[in-house]
Amino acid sequence: MANTSTESMPVTTDNAAAGPQDMFNRELETYRRIVGANLMFHQDVYRLLRELLVEQAPASFRFLDVACGDASASAAMLKTMEIGSYVGIDLSEASLQLAARELEGLPCSVELRCCDFVQAMAIWSEPVDVIWIGMSLHHLPTAAKARLMRNAHRALGGMGLFAIWEPALFEGEDRAAWLARFSKLRDEWSAISDEEFASMERHMLLADFPETVDTWLGMGRDAGFSHAEEIFMMPNRMGRVFRYWD
Ligand SMILES: C[S@@+](CC[C@H](N)C(=O)[O-])C[C@H]1O[C@@H](n2cnc3c(N)ncnc32)[C@H](O)[C@@H]1O
Description:
The chain is of the alpha/beta class. The protein has helices at 13-16, 28-36, 42-56, 72-78, 93-102, 117-122, 142-156, 175-183, 194-207, 213-222; strands at residues 2-4, 61-66, 83-90, 109-114, 130-134, 161-169, 211-212, 227-233, 239-245.
């Protein structure tokens, strides 16, 4: 049974303000339609994550889902595995309420925390084997991304797996060009309306700060991981999956 304390938690100031979190609160249904139509390739990415866990995670692994959102993709994957424990953290209370339902039936302890992952990771002290961040670290500026990766390395104690799925710039590309590349995908994103596509563009303009592949890999090595590797590129080439381990 999921141990969720989200019902009693106050909605944070970040959630209440108009801004980067709108997509995961008042426009959450749009994000869920995008995921449901596999426009961001969740099915491919989480299939790959499953293979990674089979290959690299210990038996009964303890899984930390940083910025878990509604956890729909994580839950579907983890229900097919032997997981020891699950903790999901996210700022969006609306997402966590859905996550609690998605994670019902996962045969391990499940805990959902409504909090800022930057603060949570800065003081993380509970044992964990796998830290996964799906499409969320890019909300931070570069120095804060690097700090979070150092905190992830410390939290894993030199023994676990850290994996991220994040937007990536081509070498020499800037953020404006990356955003322009997304705008050209309108035809491929026909499963959502013009208004919803405009919401996504607005969200990305406000909140998405991609890095080059070299920067993503270098930040992991600088954080202390002995190994850093790109393992997947989204077919639309907007983002990639990286893994880091010792
Ligand atoms: C694009 S969604 C990704 C959700 C899920 N990981 C997935 O793979 O679909 C980004 C999530 O990050 C959360 N988020 C963004 N900034 C955050 C922060 N500082 N602390 C906690 N959660 C955050 C949002 O609320 C949202 O649920």
